[in-house]
């Protein structure tokens, strides 16, 4: 049984656009998942930031909608080698969500409905680099693409932008997530082609 969706093979690199090494350009939005797609009703959705000492900061769906929103337009780069340029999103910056969170943490472990996790340095979620997004291309985010809300960290490979996000645990020491425990790179910079451990 395949652990990711089938049907994705490398293609010739597009020479007329600036893409990270080994990537090809796509106009569609491929769907890849490590398991079944969770269906999370917004009346049961919540997002929790838990500090390294166990303090919890929780937002319900309506709380999220009432926060200041941004509309980032970003390029996406998947570890399976496709890139999609100029994607349009709407959501809340992690700077807003973490503004009143007191922490000495250097790392974050992101948790999703369905059990998926991924790790990131905390600094990669700050300074306008990451969002909790709930709209894509002017429409509510579909479950296949991580709806009702997903993390968006476009400067890293897309597996770091966890779908169906439900929380972030702040950590003093790094802790690998789902793909990282089975050989994917701890960081995942597409411009340095950090796909797998040792890259």
UniProtKB/TrEMBL annotation:
Domain of life per record: Bacteria
InterPro entries according to UniProt: OxRdtase_Mopterin-bd_dom (IPR000572), OxRdtase_Mopterin-bd_sf (IPR036374)
Stored SUPFAM superfamilies: Oxidoreductase molybdopterin-binding domain (SSF56524)
Name this protein carries in UniProt: Sulfite oxidase-like oxidoreductase
Residue ranges annotated for the Oxidoreductase molybdopterin-binding domain, each copy included: 35-179
């Amino acid at each position: 049984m395949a652990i990711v969706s089938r049907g994705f093979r490398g293609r010739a690199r597009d020479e007329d656009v600036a893409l990270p090494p080994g990537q090809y350009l796509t106009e569609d939005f491929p769907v890849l998942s490590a398991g079944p797609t969770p269906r999370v009703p917004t009346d049961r959705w919540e997002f929790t930031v838990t500090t390294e000492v166990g303090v919890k900061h929780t937002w319900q769906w309506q709380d999220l909608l009432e926060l200041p929103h941004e509309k980032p337009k970003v390029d996406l780069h998947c570890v399976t080698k496709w890139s999609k340029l100029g994607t349009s999103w709407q959501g809340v910056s992690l700077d807003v969500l973490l503004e009143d969170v007191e922490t000495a943490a250097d790392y974050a472990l992101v948790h999703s409905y369905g059990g998926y996790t991924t790790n990131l340095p905390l600094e990669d979620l700050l300074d306008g680099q990451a969002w909790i997004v709930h709209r894509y291309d002017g429409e509510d985010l579909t479950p296949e693409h991580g709806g009702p809300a997903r993390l968006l960290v476009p400067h890293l490979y897309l597996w770091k932008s966890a779908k169906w996000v439900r929380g972030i645990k702040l950590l003093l020491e790094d802790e690998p997530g789902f793909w990282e425990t089975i050989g994917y790179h701890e960081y995942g910079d597409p411009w340095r082609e950090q796909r797998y451990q040792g890259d």
